[in-house]
Amino acid sequence: MTEADRAFLLAQGGDGLLSWAAQVRVAETLGLSLGEVEEAALAEGLLPSRYQRNRTTFSIADQLSFRRARVAVVGCGGIGGYVVEGLARIGVGTIVVVDPDHFEESNLNRQLLSTMATLGTAKVDAAASRVAAINPAVTVVAWSQRLTRENGARLFEGCAAVVDALDSIEARKELRGVCDDLATPMIHGAIAGWYGQLCDAFPGDATLDRLYGCGGGPGEQTRLGNPAFTPMAAAAFQVAEVCKIIAGQGRPLRGRALMLDMSEGEVEAIEFVDESR
Amino acid sequence: MLSEDTVTITVRLFASFRPGRFREASRGYPAGARIADVIADLAIDPKEIGMIFVAGKHADPDRALTTGDQLALFPLLGGG
Question: What is the pTM of this model?
Answer without folding.
Answer: 0.96
